[in-house]
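Friendly challenge for the regulars: who can give me the structure tokens for this chain first? No prize, just bragging rights.
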Amino acid sequence: MTVIELPDKQAAALKAKAAAEGLSLEAWLQKLAEQERPAGHPHRHIADVIFKNMQDVPPEIMATMPEDGASQHDHYIYGWPKKEA
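First reply, four minutes later:
Bragging rights claimed.
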């Protein structure tokens, strides 16, 4: 058996959800664990998700994206000085 510790507020919220379905917390968690993932939502690699989402970005917006965005993300997100190459 695995014991998972939760703050009292979270544990109470889970117990309330279980009770709303007329189940004990243990039975409700078991029911959730046994549910299969919907066929319409298969697991995909994050790179595939990003690639698919980026296909919708217009070419004129893509042209304005920095080429060093990954290596210099702190500069573009937080305004920190660029790292030396």
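The chain has two domains: 1-36, 46-78. The mean pLDDT is 89. Your move, everyone else.
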